[in-house]
Amino acid sequence: MKVKVVTKILEANERIALENRKLFDKAGIFAVNLMSAPGAGKTSLLEKTLSANSDLRIGVIEGDIAGSDDSERIERLGAPVVQINTGGACHLDANMINEVLDDLPLDELDIVFIENVGNLVCPAEFKVGEDMKIMLLGVTEGHDKPLKYPLMFQESSALILNKIDLLPYTDVDIDKVKKDSLSLNPGLRIFEVSCRTGQGISEWVKWLETQARKI
Amino acid sequence: MHEASIALNLIEIVSEQCRKNGFNRIDSINVRIGRASGVRPDALIFAFEAIKNDSIAKDASLNIEQVPVSGLCKNCNNSFTVDEEYVLCCPVCKGGSFRITAGREMDIVDMDVS
After folding, report:
1. What does DSSP say about strands B26-34 and B61-67: parallel, antiparallel, or unpaired?
2. Residues of A whose CB is below 8 A from B39
3. Which residue of A has its CA nearest to B113?
4. Which of A40, A150, A153, B66 lies 20 to 30 angstroms, CA to CA, from B57?
5. Which of A3, A121, A151 sits opposite B111 (nearest CB)?
6. pLDDT for B3-42, tens place per residue?
7. d(CA B28, CA A85)
8. pLDDT at site B79
9. Exposed (0-12), middle (13-18) or buried (19+): which is A105, by Cβ within 10 Å?
């Protein structure tokens, strides 16, 4: 006997993501799912953002396969932070976030950054309850990345090109990165920053403040 | 690795349907996977075969229909379908303003049960 099912396979995840989103909305929080390959500078960007001259009250959820190095870096800057260890899983899902939301003082925050597991593939497929997906690309990763990993570039609302200070020492064609990214996603907002020198950080933080105020 | 999570979700959904409706055995499950969904059919079948044994789907085969990426051009109004996993410009007028209309699916369509 044939039985109609007609269900999205990730329906359960999307249901929990919606719950998370409602909790963020209730607390007036702008929730960001921050994604990149390992070593692109997600935690460094958060450190720079936390140290910037801004009134934004920021909390962080750190996702890593193992270890607590990242959450210790955030903790040192005095921001509320929760570490999730996925124990091998290559991405965060909505349920993992749901389980730790109680550990953050949501009513006292304007923004929650959910720093996903370093990976250009799977994190783009799982909603966690975010208002916006933002991705980083270290310019040293190469100009072929947008067309090799199109989904993350398509899903993100902003692309942060980090390590821009290293550009003169590479053969990377930054115009190709921008052109291909915008072809995949015409509305994409692109920032050029260096978390090492601080270049471009104030522009990024100003934009972030505007986004958080919209919530 | 994400194909394993997807296979687990899939098995949970069909198991729930069987519990609710009193089915004891699934012979096959038909799903639609978009070319731009990021899911590889062979990896999904591998994951499904690896984890189905402890579930009501243990005798089931997984049939995957791949859905190509389609779009509608905002410049020339043509609808198009491509072989690639993404679209950079409208294949008809080469314009860069278009809406993707298919190719991101990850849906269970139906199943054969007894």
Report:
1. parallel
2. 125
3. A1
4. B66
5. A3
6. 888 999 999 999 999 999 999 999 999 999 999 888 899 9
7. 36
8. 96
9. exposed
- Whose tokens are 């607590």? That residue is A68
Contact A132, A157 (CB under 8 A): yes
Closest CA to A128 of A62, A47, A81: A62
Read off the pLDDT band of A187 (50, 70, 90): very high
Contact list, B97 vs chain A (CB under 8 Å): 186
Strand A132-138's sheet: what is its strand order?
A: A81-85, A58-64, A111-115, A30-35, A132-138, A158-162, A189-192
Distance in angstroms (rounded) separating the CA atoms of residues B16 and A41: 42
ipTM of predicted assembly, 2 dp: 0.82
Residue count of chain A, please give it: 215
* Structure token pair of residue A60: 């962080």
Instruction: Say what percent of chain A tops pLDDT 90.
Output: 88
